[in-house]
Amino acid sequence: YESETLEGHENQVLHVSFSHNGLLFSSCSKDGFVKVWSTESRPTRVRHSADMKQYSWNYTQYSQFNSSDTLLLVSGVHFGVHTASGEIAVFNVEPGGEFQLQCRVLNKPYDIFGTWYTDDYLVSSRLHFLGHLVSCSALWLNKACQESESERKPIIKRMFRFYNKNASSIRTVLVADCLADPEDDSPPDPQPSETDSWGRKLAHNRGHSHSAGSAQRGNPVSSLGANRLLKSLQTPPNYSQRDFYGADSNISCTNQSPIRYSSEYRCEQQSSSSTTNRNQRTCDNLSRTVSNDTDSGDSDFDDPPLPWNEDWLNLSDDELNDYTTTGAVNTSKSDHKSAKRDSKSPNLSPEEESSATTSRLLCNEDKLLLFTSGSLTYTPHQIGIKRIKPIVFEEFMSQTASLSKRLEERRQEQESQAMAASPNWHEEEAVAHMFDTVDHTIDLKGHIIGMCLSPDHRYLYVNVRSWPENATIDNPLHPPPIAQQIDIHVIDLKTFKSVGNMYRSHKAYTPNDECFFIFLDVCEQFVASGAEDNHGYIWDRHYGLCLARLPHRDIVNSVAFNPKDPEMIVTASDDKTLKIWRSRSQMNESRHYSKTRLLSSDS
C-alpha cells in the first residue's frame, strides 16, 4: 500500500537509493538538490540536503552509499545545452556528523554515473576525443577523502583506458565482487525457509549495492534433465494480485510476460539449494593475467598532470604472486623500491620517511568492472566486463616536481608531440596496444537504459529497449528504432551468459534521441523497475510473475527496495514526488501501533 508521499523536491525526481543498513535513502532531482531521508521515523523526514547548483551543476542524477554507509556518492550534470560533462561529489553521512562535502571529481560523460570500488575509493571517467567518431574512455580511481596537507599524497590513479569507435563510449559503470566456485556459491534458493507474513522467504541482504532544460523528460544518455524438474520449478505460486503492496491501479497485472529463465539457471537453483558455504571467492572464468600495458604518457589523452610517477595498475606479474594472506606486497621488493626513493630524497622528515616506504593494497580480492558500451552505434547496446586485479595505492611519494614545473613539462611535451606524426586512430588494430581489452562483451541488441546487481552480485539485471529483429546499422549516428516496451535481461556473472529475460514487461515511449534512464532494483525475492506509463512494477524474482503496479501521476524513473526490509520500496517520479510503499502486514502493524498509542494517551 502507498503509505507516504514525499514532496520535498521542486522538479522531476530522477533517482532513489538506500543505505545498506536501510536507515537512510537519498534522492536526486532536476531541481539540483540531493536529499537524504531517514526511515527511522514516521512521517519520513529529510535529514540532510544540499543544493548542487552552487557548484555549476544543472541537476543531480544518481547517488550511492558506500559499504559502511559513512559516505554518499552523488553524480550530477554540468550546466550547458549540449554538455556531456558531469561531476561526482562525496558527502559525509556518518551518524551525528555534518553533511560535509569531502571531494568533487570531474566525470565525463556524465552518464558514467560513478561507483564505489572500495569503502573509500570511487571510479570516475574522462572522455578524450581522438578523431571523427573515435575516442578513449579513461577510468580513474579516486580517493573519496582528498587530503590537502601535502601534494605528495596521491589521490587519483588511472585504472583502464578503452578504445571507443562509431561514436560510442563507456557508460554506467558498476563494480561487482568476483563470484565463488560452483561448489561454494549459488543463486538464491526459490524454496521458502524462514518466512515473512506472506509465507515468503525473508531477505538477509547486504546492499548492492540531455538537455539542460528542466522540461525534458527524465535523465537522457549523454549525446555523445529434467523437463519435469523445470516444469515444477516454473509452476507459479498461488499469488493474489493485491497480496504484496496492494497498489491501486485501473489496469491489473498479468502473467503474460513473466521472467523466462534458462534451464541452466533453473537447474543450478535446484542443485545448489543445500549449499551454504559462500566464503571462498574466486574468479576462474576470467584471465588471471595482469594487464601488461604501461602508461605511455601520450599527450593525445590530455590527462591532468600528476604529482607522482604513475605505473599502470602499480602491479607486475611478479608482484602479484608475492601477496601474503594479509595482502601485503613482498617485503624485499618493497624495501628495494624504498631504498631507491630514499637515495634520491635523503632530506625527508621522519614522518615522510616512514610514509615513503608504505603502499596500501586497496582490496585483496579481484572484482569485476561492469559497464555499458557499443561498437556499432553511439547508443549503449553492449555489456562490457573487465576484471580488476588488486590495486596498490601509494600512500606517499617522496619525490615530486612543483606544479609550475609539471605544467611546463606538459606544455613542452604537447608541443613536441604536435610536431610528431600522430597515429591513425581509426585503425583499431594499429593502436590496440595503447588500450586495455574488454574481457567479455554481451550484445543485447537494443538501447540499454538501466542495470543493477543482485544482492549476492551473482546476476546483473538490465533494462533494454530492443531493436527490430535482424536490424542493420549503416550509420553509427542513426541507430535502429527502439521498441516501446522495456525488456529485462538477466546475465549470470559466473558464466557471463544471458540466463533469463522478460519481454514487453513495462512501457517506454520516447524515441532513441530522447531516450532516458529507467532504473531498476533487485532484492532477494523481488525485481522492481520504473516505467514511462506512470507506474512502478514489482515481479517475483524467481517465478517472474508481476505482483503489483505502483501508480504515480507521471513517469516513474527509479525504484529502490529497503535492503533490510523488502516489504518497503520507494519510487521516484517526474511528478516531483517520492512514494513509500509498504506491505499490507506492515500497514496493519502501523495502524495497530498508532491505535495503541492513542488509547494509552487517552487513559
Automatic annotation (TrEMBL):
Composition bias (Low complexity) maps to: 269-282
An annotated GO cellular component of this protein is: Cul4-RING E3 ubiquitin ligase complex
Biological processes annotated in GO: protein ubiquitination
The protein's name in its UniProt record: F-box/WD repeat-containing protein 5
| Sequence ranges of Basic and acidic residues compositional bias | 333-344
Question: Which SMART domains does the record match to this protein?
Answer: WD40
| WD-type repeats, residues | 6-47, 549-591
Alphabetic keyword roster: WD repeat
- Can the keyword Methyltransferase be found in this entry's annotation? no
Q: Which PROSITE patterns match?
A: WD_REPEATS_2 (PS50082), WD_REPEATS_REGION (PS50294)
Extent of Polar residues compositional bias: 211-223, 322-332
Region: Disordered; residue ranges are: 181-223, 264-359
